Amino acid sequence: MGKSMRDLNASDAVSLLEALRLGELSSEQLVRQHLERLSQTQPLINGATRVYQEQALAEARRLDATGDKNLPLFGLPCSVKETFGLAGEEVTAGSLRMQPEPHHNDAVIVQRLKDAGAIVIARSNVPEFAMTAESSNPRFGRTNNPLDFSRVAGGSTGGEGALIGSGASVFGVGSDILGSIRIPAAFCGIVGFKPHSGGVDNTGTWPAVTGNTRAWHALGPLARSVRDAQLIYNVIAKEPVREAQVGSGRLVIPARFPLKMQSPCIAEALAGARTVLLQSGYRQEEHDFSNIGSLYLQIPKLILDDFYDDWVRLLSSPDVGRFSPLRELFAQLRGKPTIDNGLLRWMLIASVMKPRSEKKVQAIAERFASARAHYRAVLGADGVLVMPTLGLLAPKHGKMNSQSLKPGINGMFTAHTMGNYLDLPAIAVPAWKFRDAETGLPPSISVLCAPGREAQLFAAAKQIEAALN
To answer: How far is CA 72 from CA 79, 178, 230, 385, 398, in A?
Structure first.
């Protein structure tokens, strides 16, 4: 295993807030500590695309002097995904070919964090166009996993996963359309929460998702603990989550679910998580999930229908003309790429996967809408699903895209993608007690619920977190 940067004793946001409010620690001290950590780790993991050292320290000093310590995120240093607008900055999505998008205002989610007292110390790296699970791009380069530099940090919010997992940022925020929050959380040994699509205002973030996959897309936090994720979500959410009663509800067991777990530790952690809830009073209830496989096969069709034409437009220019995936393939074979290979993989499968007619698109969209209604009814007011976040541990660089973008039903990715197209709140929790004997990497377990039942999700996730760590 490569060198590791994980600090198992790193304090979470809730603990740091208490120290700040008691005067045991100043915001300037805390921000300075994390900036120093970032300066040490950045050459090794490349998680940040921009660091705001002077601005962050100035804001910390201002808060220490005049700030309200009762602010929910008072003085906490955080990071934000590169695709989130910051006033006076440009969104590049990691691309050299796309014209950078200027932002005159902070994205709503960023403004809410600042209003709550958080201090942005850095922006974080993404895969080009934020569409793969390996955070590598031609503009900023590759992000390494803080637990093992030879492995991927995940994507598309991979820079956030690396910054938080390395201890350089207390928490961060990202977006998730096919696991983009939960994959980095799982690979980097931290917590990641994807709300339902309407949970957080996405104004000022890139891209604007307006097609049939808009119900798959959500913004949410990556953090050091479940209680941190709930704290941050309550700041950025349209409706805060109340505390729920512990130990009541239904544990929905998905029968005939196409699931594959590559490492034994994943199955062991899953069994441990389910056992915790059953012992606390949850009732087990089995339901048929056999159509998940056929739904999984439809994912690329709606993604490509929503995004492919925009990708071509953004990659084209008057100087070089219309972007051609085939010409780019030949350029990459000659060792002269102009876009990331993961993005090219998506574009190359469009010739066979992109629907040819609007009628076909609507038929697929209706299948997903029907499934959303059905499985939300199955979960109801008191049901939770407990699943492996992913069926694999963080792979070596270059291996994630080849696995996640290959044709057919891939049971290692069926559980987390289901959370998107069914538009279910989903939280990923590390299971360090069950770390893999060979690599030392932790598996990750997810809890999912119906929209509006997030209080129960957080309560269940806290129980699982306590038992598996």
So the answer is: 17, 30, 12, 30, 40
Total number of domains constituting the chain? 1
* pLDDT tens digits, one per residue of 322-332: 999 999 999 99
Give the pLDDT score at 349. Answer: 95
List, by residue number, the catalytic residues: 81, 156, 180
- Helices 341-348 and 325-333 cross at an angle (nearest 10°) of 140
pTM for this predicted structure: 0.97
CA angle 347, 350, 355 (to 5 degrees): 150
Report the C-alpha gap between 399 and 194 in whole angstroms: 24
For the beta carbon of residue 9, count every other beta carbon within 10 angstroms. 6
From the list 386, 418, 189, 192, the residue with the least C-alpha distance to 280 is 386
CB count, 10 Å around CB of 326? 10
Residue 9 lies in a domain: yes
> What residues in the chain have per-residue pLDDT under 70?
1-9, 245-246
Asked whether residue 352 is assigned to any structural domain, the reply reads no
